[in-house]
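Hi,

Apologies if this is the wrong queue. I'm a grad student, and the batch job for P-type Na(+) transporter from Emericellopsis atlantica produced an output file that my downstream script rejects. I'm not sure whether the problem is my script or the file. Here is the sequence I used:
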Amino acid sequence: MAEPSMPEKHPFLLTAIEVEVAFETSLDKGLTTRQVANLQSTHPPNELDVGGSVPWYRLFAKQLFNAMILVLLSAMGLSFGIKDYIEGGVLVAVICLNVGIGFWQEFRAEKRMDALRAISSPSAMVLRDGNTKVIPNPEVVPGDIVLLKMGDTVPADMRIIEAMNLACEEGQLTGESIPVEKQTTNEITVPGTAQPAESEQDIGIGDRINMAYATTVVTKGRGKGIVVATGMQTEVGKIAASTSKKQRQPGRSMNVTKYGMRAPVVGGAKRIYDTVGKFLGLTVGTPLQRKLSKLAYILFFCALGLALVVFGVNKFDMTNQVIIYATSLGIAIIPESLVAVLTITMVVAVTVMRKGNVVVRDLSALEALGGVTNICSDKTGTLTEGAMIVRQAWVPGKHVYTVRDSHNPNNPNKGRVTYSSVSQVPETDAKRDYDSERTAAAVKFDVPDEKLPVIFEEMVEPEVQNGVELTDALRAFLLSSALCNLATVRYDADEERWQTIGEPTEIALQVFAYRFSCGKKSLEAQGWKQVAEFPFDSSIKRMSVIYDAPDSATGSIIEPNSSIVFVKGSVERVLNLCEYMGTGDEQVVVTEEVKEQVLKQMQHLASQGQRVLAIAYKPYGERYHPHQATSPEEEAAVRANVESGLTLLGLAGIYDPPRRETKGAISEASQAGIKIHMLTGDHPETAKAIAKEVGIIPKNLGVLPDHVARSIVQKATDFDKMTDAEIDALPELPLVIARCAPDTKTRMIEALRRRGAFMAMTGDGVNDAPSLSRADVGIAMGSGSDVAKSAAKIVLTDDKFNSIVSAIREGRRMFDNIQKFVLHLLTSNVGEVILLVAGLGFTDSSGTSVFPISPLQVIWINMATSSFPAFGLGREPAAQDVMRKPPHDKKRGVFTKQVVVDMMVYGIMMGICTMVTFCVIVYGAYGGELGHGCNEGYNPSCDAVFKARAATFAELTWLILISAWEFKSLRRSMFHLNPESTGRFDFFKDIYANQFLFWSVIIGVLSVFPVVYIPYLNKDFFKHMGITWEWALAVGMVFVFVGGIELWKFIKRRFHLLEDRPVNRGSWGQGGSASDEESSRVRRTMTMSSFKTWASFGRKDSTERSGQPEMVCPQAIAQQQQIV
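Support response: The file is valid. Your script probably expects a header line. Output copied below for reference.
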C-alpha cells in the first residue's frame, strides 16, 4: 500500500472528505492494523525532541577549556618543567578550584532543570478497525481518527471532522488567552476581510479554527479529527526544531554560483576563524566571557613579551634563575583568582535568585542580564495573570459597574466595585488629529483631558461611587450571570484559598456574582432549581438554562408559576433575539436605534481589550417541563422557541488582567534604560489595551511624534510583510505586535540585534521557544511548556514579571561588583608587574636580576590575600542608583574607560610606592647590598634583599587590601560612601556594612605577620625574613597610597571625568510617571530581598480569608448566615 502523503493544500483548506481521501483513512472505521504497521515503520514516534540534560563531560570540558584556565595550564607546565614543584603545585590547586566550582554549579543547575521537566505519559483514544482503543501518544500516526473530550491533551495536529461545543486552550502555542471554538467546515476567511483563505500564507495557525494542535488542551465539548501531522512535523514540533536549528552567520557561505569565486576562500576562512574562536572562547559566550577570554590571551602574550625582556636583560643566559624570574613576571600579570572569584560571585547570586524562585541554567546568563537593553515579552501569563476577570458590567439605564484593584481573579473578596453613570456613549472609530492636540509639552506629558475633543472622552463620569446599591436591574443581571453558568467557585478552608473549576469566562462571571453573594451555589441553596440546559453551541454562540424560582424570590423578573430562561452569549447573536431591554420602569423596546447604542457600548468595551458577552432572560410564561427530543431538528426547534423573545439585562466586559506588579516593573525598567516590547498572539485591540494599562505605550498616543505613533503598534501580518531594510528604516521598532507567529518574534529579535540591542525574551508558551533560544537571554516561565524551558537560560518558577526586573537588578549589581573586583585584581597585577620590571635593574654580584618579590609571594598575594576581598566586593549590595543608570556598553563590557584608567592610575601608584620601599631599605639602609643567589634561597649576604622583600610584601599586601575598601565605590570617597548619610564620619559604619569584606581585609592585614615571622616558611618558601623598623615605612606608604586614590577620585568628581552617560527613555517613559504612587511603591520593593516579599504578597492574596462582601443579595442573606 502506498504511503499517504501530505496533500498539496493544507488540510485546513480541504473538506473532511478530501482529507479522508488524502490520508487513505476511513471516517467511520479509521485505519486498519496493517496500515498502522506500515505507517509506524515509515514515521518516527509521535514525540517531541526537546533535548535532555547536558552530559557532565561537556560541562566539565566547557570549564576546562576556558581561556584563563588554558593560560594557567601553560604556567603550570613551565613551573614543573623547571622543577619548581612548589609553584607548580600551587597552580594545580588554583586550576582545580576554578574548574571545580564552575563545573559543580552548572551541574547542579542542570539537575534542577531535570526536575522541572514534566514527566508524563499521555494517551489518546483512536478509532482503528472500526473499534475505539486507548493507545500511548507515541503510537499515533498520520491518518488516525482521534476522539477528543473535555480535559484531553490533543496528541497530534488534527483536522476536525466532528465538533460538539469543542474548544481548545491554545495559549501556549498561539498566545491567545481565550479558548478557541472549533468548527468542521473549511469555510475560513482571511481576518478582516470576507475573502476565503486560499493558502497557508493567508491565515495564521491561530485562525485555522478547523484544526486542533498537538499539546493543546480541550477545555470543553467533544470532537473527532484526522491526524495530519505527528512528532516534529506538528506545529509545536516545528517550533521545537527551530530552537535547536543552527543558524549560519552571514558571509560563511562557500557557494560559488551564488556569491562568486571568492566565496570558498572568504567563507572558508571565516568558518576556520569561527571554529578556532569558539575553542578559544573568543567568539562564543556573553560579552563578559569574550572580554575575559581576550584579556587572558592578551595577558598571556604580554607575559611572553615580558619573558623576552627578562631574557634580553640577562643576555639570554637561560639559567634556572632567569627562567624563574620570567615565570614570576608571567604569574604577576595573570590574575589567577579571577575565574574563581567570578564563578563564586555568580554562584552566590544564583543562590540568592534560586531562593526567589529564579532558576539560572547558565551562569553566563546572569552576567548578561546587566546589559539587557530590550525585553521582548509575551502577554498571556507573563504580563497578565493568565486568568479572566469581569472588568466592567453595563446594565441598561446608563449604569456601569467597574471592578477595581482586584489582583486575584479567583478571589471575590479582593478589589472593590464602583458605580458610574454613562451619560454619553463614546465614539470609538473617529479619527484622532494628534497634531492639533500636541503641545510643546507633548514630548513628555499626555495631552490634558480638558484639551481632548468630547468624542474621545472614554466615559462621562459625574460621580464614581464606591458604595454600590444592589438595584433590581443589577440583581437580575447577577442572577442570569450566576445561573447560566457551569463554573464552580468555592473557598477551600483546608488550603485557605479560593478554588475554581470551569471555563475561564464562566469563572469570571461566577466570581463577579460572588462579589455580591449571588453565587450559583448559594442561590441553589435558597431553592433555585434547574430544570433544563441548552449547552453552548459554537454555531449560534450562546447557551441557556431554565430555572424555577423559589417562592421567597423577589424582583421584577420573577413571575408566579413561571420558569425563567437565562441566556448568555455573543452580543450580536443574543441582541438579535431580544425584544426588550432592561427591567422594571427602565425597560424599553429593542429598536434599531437601541441596537446601535448597545453595539456602540460593546465596541467601547472591546476597545479596552475586553471580551464582551450579552446577558439576557425571559419569563417562560409557565412551568417548563423538559422532554426528550426525537430528532436534532426537533431539539433545534425547542431551543429556538426557548431562546426567542428575550430581554437584554446587560453586557459583561471580561479580560485577562495585568499582574499587579507589572506596571511598576516596567516603570523601573524604563528608568534603567530598558525598553519593553509586547509580542503576543492575542487580538490587536486586546494587546493594545493591555499595553496601555501596564504602560508599555501611552494611553494617549498624541504624546509621541507622529512618525513614531504610526509604527509603535502593529499587527504581525503588517510587520511580516516588511523587508529587513524597511524594518531598519523605522524610526522606532514596534512596542506592541499582535497576532504574532514564531517567525514574527524571531524577526523582531534579529531587528533589535541589527540595531545593536542586547535583548531578553520572556515567555511561557511553545510559540516563545524560537525567540527564547535566539535572544541574548531567554527567560521562561516555570509553568510554561517543556519546549520553552529547554530553550531558555533562566526559568522563573513563580511566573512573576517583576521577578524579571529583580533579576536584571541582580545582574546589574553583580556586573558592578565584577567591575569592582576586576579593578581590584588587575590593579594589583599592574603594580606587581611594574615592581618586577623595575626590579630587572637590581642585579647581584653575578649579574643576575634580583626580584623584589618572590614567585610564591606573588601567588600568595594573588590567591590568598586579594581573592577574599575580591569575593567580598562581589557580595556588595546594589548601589542606590543601579536602576537609574543605562545598561552597560556591551562592546566595552566590564572594561569601561573608567575601569581601564583607574587600573593604570592605581597600579602605577602601587608600583611606585612598593618600589620606593624596596629601594629605601636596600639602598638607604644597607648601601645597595644585593648579595648573591638570593633568588634561590637564603645566605648571609641576602639580609638586605630578604628584609626589603618582607617590607615590600607586607606593604603590597596592605595596599591591595585597603584598595578593596576604596573600590566599594569607584567615584565616592571611602570616608563618605553613602550619599544620603547625615553623619559627619560614617567610615566605620560603611566599611562594616559588608562584613565579609570587612573581615577579609582585617584578617588579611593580620596574616602578614605570621607569614613574615614563621621560621622555615619565611626563608625557604617566601624568601624573606623578619623585619623591625621597616614596618613603619610600609605603613607610611599605605597612607600615601590612600591619599593618592582619594585625590584621583576628587579630580574625577570635580571635573566630571569618566561619568556614565545619562539614561535615554526615548519619546516617552514606559510605565508612567515616576511620581505615580503605586509605581513608586512597587519600585521601592524591587530588590533581591523582595523576591520573598512578593511571593508572600501572592500568598496573602490567595490565602487571606476576608470578611463577607459589602453587597448582599436579599435572597442570599439566610444562606450566608448559615455559612458564617
